[in-house]
Design goal:
Blueprint lengths: L1 H34 L7 H16 L9 H21 L18 H12 L4 H8 L3 H16 L15
Helix pairs in contact: 1-2, 1-3, 1-4, 2-3, 3-4, 4-6, 5-6
Amino acid sequence: MRERRASQGVRRAREFEAFVAGAAGRLLHTATLLTAEPRDANPRARHLLTQALAHTYASWDRLHGEDPYDSARRQLAARFQRTAWHQYGSFGRRRTSPDHVLAALTPQERLILVLRLYEGVAEEQAAALLGLPAERVGAICARAMATLLHPPRGPAPALEVAPS
């Protein structure tokens, strides 16, 4: 009995290691996009990924044919949503790298945009994951895209008046 359990544990660890070897890079990039940190300095993204992968490993035996990447992505999104709510207060704008393209977006806008456009999650699935109506997800995604495509301009430059 112990040998069987030990061999199952070894098999489980090997399966998970193979999954991580194949999926960790893309999941880290997703987490980095969510946190809007620079690629080479992304401690919050790495922390989110570590938490999501730890949860995925803990529930590995319960996945039963379910896509482990989808499970890890759901965990990543849920953890980002929770931490963004607590750290940023109602999805406000804070703690992003100002030179990151997605820094102009709120965490909720980033989350929806990354899920929809980078991860290819359907609008209905993203809505179910976030607990929002599909129409709201579509509106937030459209607003985020408009913000990225047409960033707000700064104040108009002052005109110098020539002395007469």
